[in-house]
Amino acid sequence: QVQLVESGGGLVQPGGSLRLSCAASGRISSIADMAWYRQVPGKQRELVAYIYDRNTTKYGDSAKGRFTISRDNAKNTVYLQMNSLKPEDTAVYYCYRPAGNYWGQGTQVTVSS
């Protein structure tokens, strides 16, 4: 089993920044792909950012140019730096590990003045 715990969400004003963290623990035997998704009520969960095991990255259209995904393998932690936040970025953000289909519990991000 692998546990994923997100942190760093909260309330931020438009134009502000937040950094989300996802700490992995449990039966981790190798560096794996990781991703951030987000979801708002009534909509499907959407990909925000993806980082491959060799650190290649890709982003959803809404995140390009504003968000950056990174990882610290020594800490088994993945980060999502979010800049220039907009009200439409308001969502629950989830960490995801495709190998084994593991999801975190989610962290709420609210962008509002």
Please give a handful of descriptors for the protein shown.
7-stranded mixed sheet, mainly beta, 113 residues, 4-stranded antiparallel sheet
Model description:
There is one protein chain. This protein is an all-beta fold and 113 residues long. It contains no helices and eleven strands. The chain is globular.
Tell the overall outline: globular
The structure class reads mainly beta
Stretches with pLDDT under 50, minimum 5 residues = none
User: In percent, how much strand structure appears in the residues?
Assistant: over 45%
The gyration radius over C-alpha positions equals 13 Å
The helix count comes to 0
Outline:
The chain has 113 residues and is mainly β. It has strands at 2-7, 10-12, 18-26, 34-39, 46-51, 57-59, 67-72, 77-82, 91-97, 102-103, 107-111.
List the helices and strands and how they pair.
Elements lengths: L1 E6 L2 E3 L5 E9 L7 E6 L6 E6 L5 E3 L7 E6 L4 E6 L8 E7 L4 E2 L3 E5 L2
